[in-house]
Amino acid sequence: MALFLLVTHGSDGDVLPFVSLGAALVRAGHRAVLLTHAPYREAAARAGLGFEPIDGEDAFERVLADTPHLLGGTRARLGWDAFYRRNGMFEQIAAECRTLRRLHSPGETVLVGRHTSAVSVRFTAELLGAPAAWVALAPTQLMAAPVAAHLYGTELADGLQAVRAGLGQPPIRDWRAWFAASDAEIGLWPSWFDAAGTRSPARTSLTGFPLPDGTADALGARQAGPTDAPGTLRGGPADGPADVFGGAFAPGVRPVLATGGTGRMLDPDYYPALVAAAAETGLPTLLVVRHRDLLPASLPGNLRWSPGLSFAAAVPRAAAVVHHGGIGTTARVLASGTPQVLMADGIDRPDNAARLARWGLARTVPAARWRTADLPAAVRAAASDHGYRARARAVAGLPDPHGAQDAAADRLVRLLDRTETAAPDGSVRDRLRDLPPRDLERIRARLRLRLDRPATAAPADLPATATPVTGPAPADRPATAIPQQATARTARRAGDAPDGLLLGVER
Questions:
Q1: Residue from 184, 183, 160, 182 nearest 173 by CA
Q2: Does the domain made of 3-211+406-421+436-494 have the CATH classification 3.40.50.2000?
Q3: Partners of 7 in the beta sheet?
Q4: FRET pair for 290, CA 20 to 30 Å: which of 235, 245, 281, 439?
């Protein structure tokens, strides 16, 4: 029985895939512990995972509220170093490293981190000589790795190097080589999606889209209940699977579902524009928004609001889904065969939208057109698109609730078989000679990192970073918000650090 330590940061689209990946590892007979935000404790427990919170619930919400300031188009835009120091991110990385070291069991542990953000996984793996894997949730995480490497080596260099110094590790001289030196790189999307845009590196194992909402509920999820006041729903259990909208609409009505995910990293006009377009269509619409303050105070008569519901149950019964283009929502809607309209802006979303559009599987409306007739027209067209399900099945096939998670789990389990002694029929030199150039470069990168290590033993107790901070202790600090995805459009808009290098790929 192996032990898998899983680290991720963000909102549902970043966390729930790790919950379902952990569940797949547990089904295979292993142990898994999830290190992530405090609100996901119950989801981890239901999936049979151990849980280590990396923040408190209040701290988690404070960071979410701060993330819109990282978008390039906002007037109060923060720099990354300022954001990290303001929210105690460097201290959070050091605390994660201490937790990973405490939980690590030599010879039977694999460290698994969300690509780009979970640097604690890679730092600790270097320290302990343990196998480590990156898990990427969307293609842009891989596309933007060189940009993230540049940012880590410039704007964030002092803070990250202080963390490494506290671990007894040397500075990283070549961040690009460091990114490429993991023991495995897993991409949670299918090959047809990969082929619709910039291809993933050859070293990436593609497993398909996970459907994690079948394993864990979304934050805020509850069945919609009866109307308390115009435009507002109170929570309450539905009468059955046919009533997934909790009596919000007349029997037989298939409403439009509209959402922006469970986070806050959205253009300030996202929800106002969405509400205006929904009102113009006149179609019965349910707004699934965890944070009510993101919506206008009053809603038109054809709109209802719910803080959350089961998308696995509700999406197949919706006429269409209008959303932000987060990878988790995109995958669920596609698997349900429900027409979708993407208001994609920032992070991985424009790239996700473009890949679906190339296969004819999404209508997309960029931010510059949200306030035009394009958005309500796209919603009406989607709601009457009765051929979408057949097109989706032709491209993506039938959904497999556990296929992607099981494939990723199998790839991780194989990392424990990396006791690479010389083969009986040839020397190590012969084996190296037969490797492809990409694999040789990865080996060179890993050797450079190992040669950079100090010869002295690591301290018995890992100290916190030397950078002084004020505020709550690390256990109550908000989670690491790490730069990640970039697209050409967002890079052009931001001017300095692309706004695509953001907190999370969202649900």
A1: 160
A2: yes
A3: 35, 113
A4: 281
Query: Using the 8-state DSSP alphabet, how is residue 477 labeled?
Result: S
The answer to whether 45 touches 51, Cβ cutoff 8 Å, is: yes
**187: part of which helix (H) or strand (E)?**
strand 184-187
Q: At which residue do the structure tokens 């379902």 appear?
A: 20
- pLDDT per position as a tens digit, 297-312: 999 999 999 998 889 9
Angle, alpha carbons 161-153-497 (nearest 5°) = 125
Distance of CA 162 to the CA centre of its chain: 26
The amino acid at residue 384 is S
Q: What is the pLDDT of residues 490-504, one digit of tens each?
A: 333 333 333 333 344
CB of 119 within 8 A of CB of 482? yes
Longest pairwise C-alpha distance within the chain: 76
When pLDDT is cut at 50, 70 and 90, the band that residue 212 belongs to is confident
> Do 3-211+406-421+436-494 and 218-399 fold alike per CATH?
yes
Task: Supply 413's token pair.
Answer: 């389990």
- Phi and psi at residue 288, to the nearest 5°: -105, 100
Between 388-396 and 327-336, two packed helices, what is the crossing angle to 10 degrees? 110
Query: CA of 395: how far to CAs of 80, 213, 421, in Å?
Result: 39, 22, 43
Quote the pLDDT of residue 462: 35
What is the band of 478 on the pLDDT scale with cuts at 50, 70, 90?
A: very low
pLDDT band at 70 (very low <50, low <70, confident <90, very high): confident
Domain edges within the chain: 3-211+406-421+436-494, 218-399
DSSP-assigned letter for residue 199: P
pTM, entire model = 0.80
Q: Do β-strands 224-229 and 232-235 pair in parallel, antiparallel, or remain unpaired?
A: antiparallel
Those residues with Cβ within 8 angstroms of residue 440's Cβ, 6 or more apart along the chain or in another chain:
432
**CA–CA separation, 63 vs 481, rounded Å?**
8
Q: Could you give the dihedral angle defined by the CA atoms of residues 405, 332, 327 and 42, in that order, rounded to the nearest 10 degrees?
A: -60
pLDDT, tens only, 402-448: 999 999 999 999 999 864 333 333 444 444 544 555 566 667 776 76
Distance in angstroms (rounded) separating the CA atoms of residues 268 and 309: 24
Give which of 217, 230, 224 is closest to 245, Cα–Cα.
224
Distance CA(199)–CA(427), nearest Å, equals 34
Q: How far is CA 39 from each of CA 59, 89, 332, rounded to the nearest angstrom?
A: 10, 18, 22
- Residue 246 — left, alpha, or beta (φ > 0 → left; ψ -120 to 50 → alpha)? left
Question: Of the candidates 319, 329, 334, 320, which has an alpha carbon nearest to the alpha carbon of residue 391?
Answer: 334
CATH C-level class of 218-399: alpha beta
